[in-house]
Amino acid sequence: MKKVMNNPENVVNEMVEGFIATFGNGYKKVLNSNGVIVKNKPDRVAIITGGGSGHEPLFIGMVGEGLADGAAIGNVFSAPTPDTIIEVTKELDSGHGVLYVYGNYSGDVLNFDMAAEMLDFENIKTKTVLVNDDVASAAKENAKDRRGIAGDIFAIKIAGAAANDNLSLEQVAAITQKAVDNIRSIGVALSPSSIPSTGKYTFELAEDEIEFGMGIHGEPGIQKTKLLSADELTQIMVDYILKDIELEKGDEVCILVNGLGSTTLMELFIVSRKLTNILEDKGIIIYDADVNSYCTTLEMAGVSITVMKLDEELKKYYDKPAYSPYYFKKGR
Amino acid sequence: MMVSNGDSLKTYLTIDQVKELFLYMGQKVIESKPLLTSIDSAIGDGDHGIGMEVGFKKAAEILQNNNLTTVNSIFLETGKAMISNMGGASGILFGTLFVASVKDKPIIHKLNLELLASFIQSGLEGVKARGKAELGDKTMIDALEPAVKALHQALEENEDLINALKKASEKAQDGMENTKNLIAKFGRAKSLGERAIGHQDAGATTISIMFEAIYTFVNELQNKGELQYE
User: Fold this and answer.
1) Measured between CB atoms, which of B37, B51, B83 is closest to A78?
2) Coiled-coil segments, which residues (chain A) (predicted)?
């Protein structure tokens, strides 16, 4: 696979340098580490996200006003080091504590937990909310083992809004956890991505095949089929989600149709069209909808859909304005 | 100098030999990068060999550029280099192996079988506490725990250091081979279920390479008559 890069070992450093070169008015890089933070964090609880690179614009693209205040990123598909997480945390904590919001992967959990332990010695308070929205990654009774995918977007949006409300760390964590408990996602992959350092594809898929439940690092999915129409594959994805979360007539949801890397907006809107139809036919109210490629897997082709069931509290925080160069919501 | 059988406490490595041992062990793991990458690509995310190279390279830099005067600091600095530079799960787990080895341990300036067994026992416990994995979960533990057991057994049976390391190396290798028969409970391989069977675990492979390197290095010292004996 052809890639635009220099030395493959430097892709992450050079990406961060490029991000700062581009958006340096609002952001800065944390010294000696691949951490990106906002320049003017208000004096309140801080929200930090992070994980491996290769999912851009996540995670740095979710750093902004009313979103995360910083992101600690690692190499491609590899968790950030505790040092990076610690540096980002120290830059952002103003004594109110820090909430870590990130996808549930063992490498990320090990590194963030170790950072949290070490920060505890310095009296910096942290709490963690793990995003585990991927219904394909474990059975419902083992939901705590599920991986996090595009649900990160909604979780970070809610966390950032709650923090901006000057709530305590415990309150911000509780609201973010409530959001996560109400988020479900599933993806379908059409073609794999290749890792810059090895040039190798993360999985194999025949030219005429697709795989449901494929993870965002190429983790194997749950159902492989011949290529289906947009309407058919959307229906299958919605069925998986509706099997997992109770949605009744009159319930309100936010939906996100998320591209996995190289799938075009044209295709994503075709999915959104069908998703909207299915939910409306069931009397489910689409409070807000979004179509974009936020949580990608390098150049993987495919799409994921995410549903967040709302209540009045989640709606209140979802409605707050938010801004980053890659995610923006007008308040309402 | 010949080492007599039966005096497991009397053979030891000097501080400089321990340092050389760590550099040699790191070199052997780094040389295995292509093997580790291909093993990890089959059922993991393929970055294990790359990560281990980063960790051992950084550790070598620190070992060579600092005058570390205790065995404890060699373990500690190696572990810290891994935790601070590798990223991923391996960085924490392999780093913890070395850091936990010397946690709350008396400062020592030479390494014999008893101390080595005691250190790595603590390292094993540290890795298990952090990673939550047990024997049979298709992780580094499957090679590490049998190797540590072999060291303790050799100690009880009053074997010499070389024999103890030889047995530990063999047990680590057996443990690594046995991971082929296991279903993974952690990491990306977990989602493969039965499909992971037939593939060995990359972390267990690294542990096996490390123990083989320790045995080879110390055996070479013995052959050259450089092993210390008191």
Assistant:
1) B51
2) none
